[in-house]
Amino acid sequence: MKNLERTNHVDEISIIPTGGAVGAEIRGVDLALPLDVDCVTRIKQAIWDHCVLFFRDQQIDETQQVRFTQYFGQAVPHVRKQRDRPVEEIFIVSNVKENGEEIGALGNAEISFHSDLSYLRKPGTLSFLYAVEVPRTGGATQWVNCYQAYETLSDSMKERLLGLRAVHRHYVEEQNPPKLVDHPIVRTHPETGHQSLYVGPHLTKSIVGFDEAESRTLLEELYSHIMQPQFIWTHEWQVGDLLVWDNRPTMHRREPFPQTERRVMRRTQIFGDEIPVE
Ligand code: OGA
Ligand code: MN
């Protein structure tokens, strides 16, 4: 008898680049169903090639999102604890309040460019965000290609950055590890071998060994370089979108949206290894 069970098949996957600085849409995959090793290999390669992927019209529950995440590494509960989470690896990003209490994190304001969990010694590698409810206006997310940002620096700036490290710190003091965390300003991706800039205005605080003014001047110079429109791609969310991004060669920023609108996203994440000193 013919097997009518639905399944994902690598031959049905198509990868459609956005044509922008990063990003590709993946079609032909149902994330509610398991993926075999060929499908996972294809998707992984697409992440290394495009840095950010989106899958539209997905109907997945929390457990299915965690299963998809686990194909790429160990899904780890977020460092910030949230109440009443049936699936502990899921972190809710939302402005919604129930009985006066926020159901998730990050509110409705702008979140400036950052790389997830860079305030940890072993920062985020891949993040996954699934749209449950989206606002009618605002709340888009932008990604910047930090490979391109690095490559387009002048040779003298590249030389200047050699060996420099920057301190990363979360603005909510309790979330930081006790010991100050710093990372290289230029990092090499373990899968692609390409170098990228790893500083952003939301979480990077200072350059190790620089005085405050010197540090601020250099960081501001790097930020204005990184944030040029040709390096940036914007995603307008639809309900059922699942985005996965690589935090090592990208940063992202969330646009604000009205507090009168509801935005509910489910997030999972994978943390990496300590960034090696080159
Ligand atoms: C995050 C984040 C942006 C968004 O979850 O790390 O930055 O669009 N979210 O909600
Ligand atoms: Mn983030």
3D architecture notes:
By secondary structure, this protein is of the alpha+beta class. It has a domain of 154 residues: Clavaminate synthase-like (Double-stranded beta-helix, 4-Layer Sandwich), CATH 3.60.130.10. 18% of the residues lie in helices and 29% in strands. The strands form five sheets. Strands 1-2-3-17-9-19-4-7 form an eight-stranded mixed β-sheet, with helices on one face. The longest helix is centred in the last third of the chain and has 15 residues. The termini are far apart. The model has no long low-confidence stretch (mean pLDDT 95). The structure holds N-oxalylglycine and manganese (II) ion. N-oxalylglycine binds next to strand 9, strand 18 and strand 19.
Please give the structural blueprint:
Elements: E1 14-17, E2 24-27, H1 37-50, E3 52-55, H2 62-70, E4 91-94, E5 97-98, E6 101-102, E7 105-106, E8 111-114, E9 124-133, E10 141-145, H3 146-151, H4 155-161, E11 165-168, E12 181-184, E13 186-188, E14 195-197, E15 204-207, H5 212-226, E16 232-235, E17 242-246, E18 250-254, E19 264-271
Parallel strand pairs: 2-3, 4-7
Antiparallel strand pairs: 1-2, 3-17, 4-19, 5-6, 8-18, 9-17, 9-19, 10-16, 10-18, 11-12, 11-15, 13-14
Bound molecules: N-oxalylglycine and manganese (II) ion (MN).
Residues 93, 106, 111, 116, 127, 129, 141, 252, 254, 265, 267 line the site of N-oxalylglycine.
